[in-house]
């Protein structure tokens, strides 16, 4: 999981092609700069502005040059060979990174939160980019550049950050390149005062990737600490986010995807699905999976309840009931006798409710199918079955949208 991707050098525009372009050079720190002053220097990165500034309309600088550079970048993307970013294939990505740096610099450090205007401008020039700013530390921005003519080609991420009043940039290859999310945080470590986490998805959203970088002590460049080439299983309906779960000002990240359903229970086509949550936390060598669990919901409570009954674990099943004494009624109904595939079928749930308070389910009993309405309530920490009642069989159809009770409407997909 800890592999080094292709790290890109800063873009150096050619003077012979564009007289307005200035060559990027790295300034060296004075010899008298000590470790203590280096830490103090990085602290300036997170210092909030003393006064909120009035927003002014932004006008892109050097519009003619931007138009010419974007045309060169598009031509370069069109003529790129293969999907890699090596060799001359990298040049159009580099050009777009240079353009974005110049545009962001025109906004000024205090106005970096207006970067959405820069993304819109780049897109209007026929480029394919995502531009994100760290809202908690609005001196860090992430630009992702993709080849607009080769959707399967590799993407390049450009890190942009202010070191005092200088806007610096550094590029590296992403494994996915779509729907980027970022989080930057203060580490309180002299050798790496800031850390930068990036989540990005594959184009088909089947895989999610994570990268972790650490800022050098002098604030000049980022070390790649963790680069995930295998990725995390994802889904078109999945989601992911950074969150500070334990209040230590350092993030974890969470990934939500549909969970597989136990064969004992069939779910209706439009009913809420089980949701699996994976939590990743920082370890000495990078982020690693801490736990995987099913997100509590009425559906998950029902499924776990009938699973435990089928396993003969009455005591555990009773914990999912508001009135544990009703476990005897469940056993008397024969719910603990059937363990076959599809013994239960969820027919419908509360309409237009992602977290329904009731569901209709059919139990395939030995003497024939029986339909029940289950009601749920939350005690603040988990969902419980409040009760159930027998219902007349709903027509005998197998599709949930064809046998909803009167007065209900099908759930939207």
From TrEMBL:
Organism per entry: Eiseniibacteriota bacterium
Protein name stated in the entry: VCBS repeat-containing protein
UniProt region (Disordered), positions on chain: 1-22, 394-413
